Amino acid sequence: MKVAVFSAHSYDETFLQEANAPYGFELTFFKSHLAPETARLADGADAVCVFVNDDLGAETLHLLAQGGVRVVALRCAGFNNVDLATAERLGIRVVRVPAYSPHAVAEHAVALIMTLNRQTHRAYNRVREGNFRLAGLLGFDVYGLTVGVVGTGKIGQCFARIMHGFGCQVLASDPYPNEALNAYARYVPLETLWQQSDVISLHCPLTPQTHHLVNETAINQMKPGVMLINTSRGGLIDTAAVIEGLKHGQIGYLGLDVYEEEEHLFFEDLSGQVIHDDLFSRLLTFPHVLITGHQAFFTRTALENIAQTTLNNLSCVLADRPCPNQVLPPPGSVGCVIS
Ligand code: NAD
Question: Is the CB of residue 245 below 6 angstroms from any atom belonging to ligand 1?
Fold first, then answer.
């Protein structure tokens, strides 16, 4: 069984090869993203194995189908980059890794909050340069703050529990509230969450309904100086609106692990190149903005789980067994991709 692995970094290769011992799949690793231009690399493979910024729109899927690919195995939970309706029409099954470590992502969101608050990244550099002054490092107690969690699925729940443990009042918004969370959080309408939270963390998926959920209207409802954290998907935030919010102090702190145009930037070393994305460059000029390059998932535990689940998914679908991690298009959909 041949699997073409796209967007493969050294760590993907290490963890997938280790997990492949019992399966014996023929894995071929490609550093390039999957896109129409690279889809032909998969000719002759039974499956492609892809990540968050690979392009699985209609054009790519048609090329994959022509080359004999029958399965798309996502090494991630989100599937907003796949045209599911087209995949179904072409008989390509799509599988994903719904949970590999919700703790990894929730803990990274907390790391962003604590770094922005206590400026540990600046303190690290200062002390190494022999500068022990404290001016500019003033933080605040997290204890007693109101923290809003948008989306209380696997990751949002972990995050809510951690923030409850800090002694915060946790507000939550989700169209499908989870009773188990009532001990840690209070569900409120989204508007109330925007209005009352000191810190807001996004944990819902990117869908046509949640695209630019954080826009000018939402930002204007937030508390002046709010801290906004996004470890979910870049498209949840209207970047231009957030820049305006930062300029006027309406947003006091911004912590991002994802960015709406990240596929042109993240996961590559661009340190010797000019960044052409002016909105991204503008974000980097603000003192209270901290951006990491989609690394929230990046723990050893998560990579082991991703590799094991991905190969198990492949063995299920390639043997035509039902796979609990298969993703189907919503009924009646004609194909819709948000990238
Ligand atoms: P999940 O499916 O378990 O939970 C998502 C929750 O969001 C669900 O409870 C759903 O009802 C809720 N939701 C849907 N629409 C909403 C809306 N309009 N408002 C509020 N809530 C809404 O997903 P998860 O495993 O918790 O992951 C959440 C997101 O985190 C994923 O969609 C993915 O985009 C992102 N993610 C990021 C990383 C990373 O490394 N940065 C890693 C994994 C996942």
Answer: no
**Strands of the sheet with 93-95, listed across from one edge:** 26-29, 2-5, 47-50, 71-74, 93-95, 326-327
Which residues face 69 on adjacent strands?
A: none
Rounded distance between C-alpha atoms, residue 11 and residue 20, angstroms:
14
Ligand 1 centroid, distance to 178 Cα (angstroms): 13
- In tens, the pLDDT along 225-259 reads 999 999 999 999 999 999 999 999 999 999 999 99
Q: Is 109 in the pocket of ligand 1 (CB under 6 A)?
A: no
Query: Closest ligand 1 atom to the C-alpha of 155?
Result: 26
User: Can you tell me the distance from the alpha carbon of 38 to that of 4, in angstroms, rounded to the nearest whole number?
Assistant: 11
Q: How far apart are CA 73 and CA 93, in angstroms?
A: 8
Tokens of 287: 């003192």
Ligand 1 atom nearest to CA at 80: 34
Active-site annotation holder among 262, 264, 304, 321: 262
What single-letter DSSP state applies at residue 57? S
| pLDDT digit string, tens, across residues 102-123 | 999 999 999 999 999 999 999 9
Catalytic residue among 93, 108, 203, 233: 233
Angle at 188 between CA 183 and CA 193, to 5 degrees: 110
Contact 156, 174 (CB under 8 A): yes
- Alpha-carbon 91 to chain mean position: 27
Residue nearest to atom 42 of ligand 1 (CA): 297
Contact 309, 23 (CB under 8 A): no
> Which residues face 95 on adjacent strands?
73, 326
Instruction: Enter the pTM of the model.
Output: 0.89
